[in-house]
Design goal:
Layout: E1 4-8, H1 12-20, E2 26-30, E3 44-47, H2 54-64, E4 71-74, H3 81-88, E5 93-97, E6 108-114, H4 118-131, E7 133-136, H5 141-151, H6 153-170, H7 175-192, H8 198-205, H9 211-218, H10 221-238
Parallel strand pairs: 1-2, 1-3, 3-4, 4-5, 6-7
Antiparallel strand pairs: 5-6
Helix pairs in contact: 5-10, 6-7
The structure holds NADP nicotinamide-adenine-dinucleotide phosphate.
Length: 241
């Protein structure tokens, strides 16, 4: 039997999950102002509102009182299991950190559960397997770390693509030409990275004394990226407050 799923918060991620579940689950979306009644008898109630809206959404869930078998799945950045449990009054919880990749069938998620039997944990794994690649973590804080790496990660990539595209325009290419050059390069690079180490791939492109080496001497990413990821991790922890 297909799992019954209620998605509370039908924005970017809620919709992406709804789409990924098409034909695989009986999905009821519930956006702001919609009834969340179907969550009571659902196998999975997915909470995909912004962390800033978590208090009101969890209060609605508490008012509804989820069924004993329902697993409350939160994909919210930062909001802890302790907070989710105390504000919802529910004690079967999975905290999952996916990313936007799931909207194109290429998502990755980390997850951890609370109050679930071994059987229920298997059910969560089976459910997540339908949507995206995933793995279980042992410490809840790892969910905040995953948020900083792969949850926010697509935006780091888009920002770099955007700046490279602007640099290409600065060299005189039209916006369309710049986008084509960047898009095709990044797509191919991602495919190449499937089967080789990053350092090895860099060596394949950058020959000694060449153009790439000249650019890489200027691109001082290491410290900046580390700082950026730490800032996202710190923010994920603050969001619980
Ligand atoms: N976007 C990402 O790439 C990403 C990746 C991983 C995890 N996440 C997490 O996923 C969650 C959702 O992010 P998002 O980007 O999808 O945000 P979003 O596009 O703003 O979607 C949130 C949706 O929740 C609705 N909503 C607000 N309060 C509600 C309530 N009380 N009951 C029902 N629906 C309510 C909003 O409706 P209105 O617009 O009408 O307010 C909106 O449609 C966040 O907690 C975020 O941390 C996001």
């Amino acid at each position: 039997m297909k799992p019954r799923v209620t998605i509370i918060g039908y924005g970017t991620m809620g919709r992406a999950i709804g789409k990924a579940l098409e034909g695989k689950a009986a999905v009821t979306p519930a956006d702001q102002g919609d009834s969340i009644a179907s969550a009571k008898a659902a196998d999975f109630a997915i909470l995909s509102v912004k962390p800033q809206n978590s208090t009101e959404a969890l209060a609605e869930i508490k008012k509804l009182k989820l069924g004993k078998k329902t697993i409350l799945v939160s994909i919210m950045a930062g909001v802890s299991i302790k907070k989710i449990s105390s504000l919802s009054g529910h004690d079967k919880i999975a905290r999952v950190m996916p990313n936007l990749g799931l909207s194109v069938g290429s998502g990755i998620a980390g997850w951890i559960t609370y109050g679930l039997s071994a059987e229920e944990k298997k059910k969560v794994k089976k459910f997540l397997d339908m949507i995206m690649e995933n793995f279980e973590v042992q410490k809840e804080d790892d969910i905040n770390k995953i948020t900083a790496v792969s949850g926010s990660g697509p935006a780091y990539f888009f920002r770099f693509a955007e700046t490279l595209s602007k640099a290409a325009e600065g060299l005189g290419f039209s916006p369309e030409e710049a986008r084509r050059l960047v898009q095709k390069t990044f797509h191919a690079s991602s495919l190449l990275a499937e089967n080789a180490e990053y350092a090895e791939l860099i060596k394949r492109v950058a020959s000694k004394g060449g153009t790439t080496e000249a650019a890489l001497k200027v691109l001082k990413f290491d410290k900046m990226t580390e700082k950026a990821v730490r800032a996202a991790y710190k923010r994920a922890k603050e969001l619980n407050e």
